[in-house]
Model the fold of this input.
Amino acid sequence: MRFWHWLERIRACFFGKTITGAAGVSMRIAIFGWGSLIWDPRELPREGVWQEGGPVLSVEFSRISSDGRLTLVIDAENGAPAPTRFVQSPRVDLDDAISDLKLREGTSTRHIGYLNLRHGKQACRIQEVAAAVRDWANANGFDAVVWTDLGPNYQEERGIPFSVEAAEAYLRGLPKTLANRARKYIQNAPAEVNTPLRQRLRESGWLEN
Done:
């Protein structure tokens, strides 16, 4: 993944363009988070600490990760509105901020959402999300924003539509070691992320209150 990062930088030097706009433009960039990025940022470059007050987005634990956990993603169909958090990136180039988040998430550029207010460019699965992010960035003085834009895949992985009941049954059927890992992930999500599945798991006793 680092190879592609440097390839993008070299291409920018020779051709003067990047995937997000003109090269060499200093920007104030925010990173959005709502899940493990907040409590387990690892080596993600950032300035200061995560702050409350990000835009409200619809999220749910509706993506099955490679290790079997149910992870939080933006999900317009099954999710519930939840306030996100934000932190400022130390980068002043949007492509660098995208590469930072891509490396932390272990994913590709196409799964990183971004909004570039200066150049009117964006990459986002859901247009309503882009509108909410744009309003937030304008109100808070940011030139650009990046976030993880992986989508739900429960039906793709399990062959049945996502529902709170189906997701709870899936979690209860996991082997003990994996179930403990999945429980820790959901338990550690920010308190304000109170999705329908999280509520159900607390009510049923699978999660601690």
